[in-house]
Amino acid sequence: MSLLPHKHLLGLADYSEADITMILDTAERMREILDRPVPKVPTLRGVTVVNLFFEPSTRTRVSFELAEKRLSADTLNFSASGSSLSKGETLLDTAMNIEAMKIDVVVMRHKSPGSPHFLSHHLNSIIVNAGDGCHEHPTQALLDMMTLRQKFGTLKGLRICLVGDISHSRVALSNIIGLRTMGAHVTLCGPATLIPRSVECFGVDITHNLDEAIRNCDALNILRIQMERQQAGLFPSLREYQKYFGLTRERLAKASAPLTILHPGPMNRGVEITSDVADSEHSVILQQVTNGVAVRMAVLYLLAGAQIPNPETKA
Fold it and tell me: pLDDT tens digits, residue range 247-298?
């Protein structure tokens, strides 16, 4: 039974401040496990997790796999290429057949928004959304919030600016929902063509001036410019985007106080962020990656209903 008042993690809209705080607090304890000489506990021994990835992924897939192994879960990895999907089998038939093999948790990434929600109505397994199209990516937002909380001590009152392709970013929506729930002030910055209409209904501010955003925030979360969208003509060129919205050392110098820089990856160095910024003392990008494993351990543990491992527990 889940220790959260939810069976699944499909998105953050239904998660309260208390729910998110529980995940972040648990992730801090899981982070301690990762620093042990033997970073493994038997917490989810006997639990079977299948990773259903219908889109390419490196960081998220590897992070979930590692989180599962650190908790001693049995792991099954599924890739759409070479599967029966290529023979015409439906998503639901694939998922139901896999569940019939007696699995407990499905970690799913799919190009179609709402696909994890769809499966949650047809499967008995716990569903964890690892990214559904341009909709949500809840564990990425949770690891971003964990990283910010480590840096500032609290999320309440923090001024966070999300910069880049807001319209096509599942990371953006989950961050907006999660940060607002936790009491942070959120600003969106990017070309007008990359910011969705009516997004103000989420309680965010909008600016198209990165220098202005830098002067009025505590942290910047730089989103990837999706090269595959460039053919749509949403901005004239990558060179022009870099000129107006690329984060550089010169731009950082305009901040009223030292800024914290996040990026969900993968980075387009020299486009949305320069290498000297990405690798600077302002960056917490690698800390995000490590926290991603801890957050995913916390989510799996809380939803699977195991007991918190004692810090002295031997692997």
Answer: 999 999 989 889 999 999 999 999 999 999 999 999 999 999 999 999 999 9
Structure tokens at 45: 């021994």
C-alpha distance from residue 134 to each of 109, 111, 196 (Å): 11, 8, 12
Q: CB of 70 within 8 A of CB of 27? A: no
Percent of the chain with pLDDT over 70: 91
- Alpha-carbon dihedral of residues 238, 169, 278, 260, nearest 10 degrees? 130
- pLDDT at residue 68, as a whole number: 97
Q: Cα–Cα distance between 165 and 152 in angstroms, integer?
A: 26
What is the SS3 assignment for 201?
helix
Show the CA angle centred on residue 208, arms to residues 203 and 213, nearest 5°: 70
Q: How far apart are CA 13 and CA 191, in angstroms?
A: 26
CB 166 within 8 A of CB 195: yes
Q: What is the largest CA-CA distance in the chain?
A: 57
Backbone angles phi, psi at 275, to 5 degrees: -65, -35
Q: Which pTM does this prediction carry?
A: 0.93
pLDDT exceeds 50 at position 313: no
Q: Cα angle at 104 between 103 and 105, to 5 degrees?
A: 105
DSSP alpha helices (H): ranges in the chain?
17-34, 59-70, 91-99, 115-120, 138-152, 170-181, 210-215, 238-245, 249-252, 275-278, 285-304
Q: Is the Cα torsion angle 295, 226, 276, 251 positive or negative in sign?
A: negative
List the beta bridge partners of residue 162. 188, 221
What is the pLDDT averaged over residues 207-218? 96
What pLDDT is recorded for position 211?
95
Residue (of 57, 238, 23, 272) closest to 143 by Cα position: 23
pLDDT at 88: 63
User: Alpha carbon of 216 to those of 70, 88, 304: distances in Å?
Assistant: 40, 52, 41
Mean pLDDT, to the nearest integer, of 68-87?
Answer: 78
